[in-house]
Design goal:
327 residues; mainly alpha; 13 helices; 2 strands; 78% helix; 4% strand; globular; membrane; transmembrane helix
Length: 327
């Protein structure tokens, strides 16, 4: 339950990304600076936190041992996640990008067979691949229906260009983010805390952001003062606070695929914050009709995930108790 609450809180801070990215695009800002500046701003804040906690040396040691894997999976988790999202903001409103992003609640579950756990046997350790948690996936699919209903009232305003440029990149991001995050959890194996992992992944992704910013400087020129300030807000709210909260939540349930799916499903709450945030800040119309039904379906879906996670936790505790009694 704690991890689910952390996930919902993370979604609130992460919603700032979709609102401000759209705002920056509407005022002439380039997606190149919206994406790269966020990660440049994240580094000093995360570095201060890790230095204060006195565990930077451990992070450096871990990164040196698997530097290429760090770079590769950080590219998936951060670059292939955030660059497509900021690019999509240039072609569609925040509700469209945020709504499409909710595919992560299903894609994360579909990626489960790519991972395995090591089980100790009499002959040593064997690798057993995880299976798709169909109960969790069915609930996630119901939440996705709610997201679609919210989007429905805007469907008539979507052009072909919006659909291709505003949706396709986000679909790519929806697969890349959970894949990169899960692979990094697997690589770290619980040896690093959340702040260390986020800082390490941010540093590992910097070469790509530097190349993108050089390209931006040549082709679109430097960012405006307004874009720099708004990107700074995104970096703190979404990059530092939201990412840290979400990684804390996923780290806490990394060995339980059903609970991990439940935590990832909490990101559907972003649609609430984005829709109402755009109403307040960008004067978009309030949701009505089917959209209201969709909101209720999402709420029910997240509650169902919470109940399922609690049931699974109680079941695991009973099994553990029985095993200890027999021992």
């Amino acid at each position: 339950m704690k991890q689910i609450l952390l996930g919902v809180l993370a979604s609130m801070f992460f919603a700032v990304t979709f609102i401000l990215n759209r705002s920056m695009e509407l005022t002439g800002g380039s997606w190149i600076w919206s994406s790269s500046l966020r990660f440049f701003f994240m580094v000093p804040f995360l570095l201060i936190i890790v230095l204060f906690r006195k565990n930077l040396k451990q992070l450096i040691t871990e990164m040196r041992q698997n530097i290429f894997k760090w770079i590769f999976w950080s590219f998936f988790a951060f670059v292939l996640f955030y660059a497509p999202i900021t690019y999509a903001a240039a072609f569609g409103p925040g509700w469209l990008v945020s709504g499409t992003w909710q595919l992560t609640i299903v894609t994360g579950t579909l990626l489960v067979p790519l991972f395995y756990e090591q089980i100790k046997t009499a002959d040593g350790y064997i690798k057993v691949r995880y299976k798709i948690p169909f109960k969790a996936m069915s609930i996630s699919s119901i939440i996705l229906v709610g997201v679609v209903l919210i989007q429905w009232q805007h469907a008539t305003s979507i052009t072909t260009t919006m659909l291709l440029a505003g949706v396709a990149p986000v679909v790519l991001a929806a697969f890349a983010y959970p894949l990169g995050n899960r692979k990094m959890m697997e690589l770290c194996g619980g040896r690093l805390d959340t702040f260390q992992r986020v800082l390490g992944m941010t540093i590992a992704s910097l070469p790509f952001w530097i190349l993108l910013s050089v390209y931006g400087m040549i082709n679109v020129g430097p960012p405006s003062t307004s874009q720099v300030s708004q990107t700074f807000i995104v970096a703190i709210s979404s990059g530092v606070i939201a990412t840290t909260l979400f990684f804390m939540a996923t780290d806490g349930v990394r060995k339980d695929q059903g609970k991990l799916a439940a935590v990832e499903a909490t990101q559907s709450a972003q649609i609430f914050f984005v829709v109402f945030g755009e109403v307040l800040l960008l004067s978009t119309p309030l949701p009505s009709g089917l959209a209201i039904i969709g909101l209720f379906i999402i709420i029910l879906g997240m509650l169902a995930h919470s109940l399922l996670a609690k049931k699974m936790s109680n079941k695991a505790a009973l099994i553990k108790e029985k095993v200890s009694r027999k021992a």
